[in-house]
Design goal:
452 residues; Anaerobic Ribonucleotide-triphosphate Reductase Large Chain; alpha/beta; two-stranded antiparallel ribbon; 17% strand
Length: 452
């Protein structure tokens, strides 16, 4: 039965508290597109994507009108390109990226993910070639997103592959320097990557996924912050319960949209990702939630504890609202996309080291962080290695999306526009880990990986 109070509460969430469906993402398998001929491969990729997702944007718009719920993004994720590119030349992999862009243009979607490689234990010829052209692929396309999984709890960390990422990120920053190095905002490096993540830049259609699937990402930091504000000075047990109940309501909205989209498109329903994904809009911020909980500023001592409690309560509430919760699910802390994070970084309360500590208890990792453009490849590699280690040891997903903003120094600001927002350039520790990184090999999996 529909409760009138629940309906009115949901309307308030949408109108006043920035509740939205952040994305409907259709996952599409490309395994049946494999071909020895690069041009034929690209033709089959384009045809399959544009056929399967032909009605994605229209159905999303219809659901928006039907329920009055904003659906901010309509996206597509595909099988990791390194798995279907096979023996393509480097130039062939660039052609695939351009084909993905052409498909995105035809469909009218805002991002397409899957220019990706999974190399946590070793690198195939195809993965090697694809990774080698990531900078050019991202520079020559607008909506294509790329990801590389370098580590897992079962495999450890592939340091040979990791040692290449600093140069890859730096080159991507240089090739897109006229757009504030925005190419790096479309490239994310993972440990324990989820195969059903609807959020970019890390989305791809995993090898265990069906032919097609609908995955929905909900968002509602403003809703949670408002609920905490209304709660007043209650104790933390009560506050956790309030967050759980709020997350339940948010996730039910996502479940409704996902079910409708699945039915209208004739595509299986995959998962609802109940992550609190912020935007640059004032009030739509994870940092503001933490401050509403009682911190003077996000980044203050106590921030990691508050974030751990928030993340746990969000997941507990969400799993009761949907039988298929997946993706990342929890709280995102992307600096450039969160007005409160931006403000905390600008006033010096939030540092790179504090963000790293926070990633041990939240959904993802060091996300959308601008650093000086002259940061060395070795230091970038060291930042990645530290973050992926947190994921491997704690059996969780962690990721890094760094933007070494070309020509910018600590204290400057870079603007990416739209949902990507703007970011203060944060200082980095200048001492080099180069000798450690250059040893190569593989950091072994932790002992608790032996669970079979």
């Amino acid at each position: 039965m529909l409760n009138t109070q629940d309906i009115l509460e949901t309307i308030q969430m949408i109108r006043e508290e920035n509740l939205d469906i952040r994305t409907i993402t259709m996952g599409i398998s490309l395994f049946d597109c494999v071909s020895d001929d690069e041009n034929r491969l690209c033709e089959k990729i384009y045809d399959k994507i544009t056929t399967r997702a032909e009605r994605l944007v229209q159905v999303g718009n219809d659901i928006e009108i039907k329920y009055g719920i904003p659906i901010v993004n309509k996206r597509v994720s595909v099988t990791p390109v390194s798995l279907i590119g096979g023996n393509c030349s480097p130039e062939g992999y660039i052609k695939i990226a351009q084909t993905l862009q052409r498909a995105a243009d035809t469909l009218g979607i805002n991002f397409i993910g899957g220019f990706s490689a999974l190399v946590q234990k070793g690198m195939t010829v195809g993965a090697d070639r694809m990774i080698s052209v990531i900078p050019e692929a991202l520079a020559q396309t607008r909506n294509v997103c790329s990801s590389v999984n370098l580590a897992s709890t079962k495999a450890g960390i592939n340091m040979d592959a990791l040692s290449r990422m600093g140069a890859t990120i730096k080159k991507t920053a240089y090739l897109t320097r006229e757009q504030n190095s925005i190419g790096c905002a479309k490239l994310v490096v993972f440990a324990n990557v989820p195969e059903d993540n609807p959020f970019m830049a890390g989305a791809f259609c995993g090898i265990g996924e069906p032919e097609t699937a609908i995955n929905v990402g909900v968002s509602g930091p403003g809703v949670v912050a408002s609920a905490i504000h209304r709660a007043g000075d209650c104790n933390l047990s009560t506050l956790a319960d309030i967050i759980k109940k709020t997350a339940f309501k948010i996730t039910r909205v996502g479940q409704l949209v996902a079910s409708d989209a699945s039915k209208e498109l004739g595509v299986p329903f995959g998962i609802v990702d109940l992550s609190l994904a912020p935007t640059p809009a004032v009030g739509d911020s994870v940092a503001y939630i933490l401050e509403e909980m009682g911190l003077e500023s996000c980044g203050a001592h106590g921030t990691t504890a508050a974030l751990a409690m928030l993340n746990d309560a969000v997941k507990k509430g969400g799993v009761m609202a949907s039988s298929h919760v997946g993706g990342l699910s929890g709280a995102f802390i992307p600096v450039s996309e969160d007005a409160g994070m931006i403000a905390a970084a600008e006033r010096g309360a939030l540092t790179l080291e504090k963000l790293e500590a926070m990633t041990a208890v939240c959904s993802v990792g060091l996300d959308m962080i601008a650093i000086p453009g002259d940061t060395s490849e070795a230091i970038i590699n060291g930042i990645i290695a530290d973050e992926l280690s947190i994921g491997v040891v704690n059996t969780k997903t962690t990721a890094v999306r760094l933007i070494p903003a070309y020509g910018k120094q600590a204290g400057d600001k870079v603007d990416f526009g739209g949902l990507l927002g703007s970011a203060p350039v944060m200082p980095v520790n200048p001492y080099s880990p180069e000798r450690f990184i250059s040893r190569g090999g593989r950091i072994p999996a932790p002992i608790h990986s032996l669970k079979n």
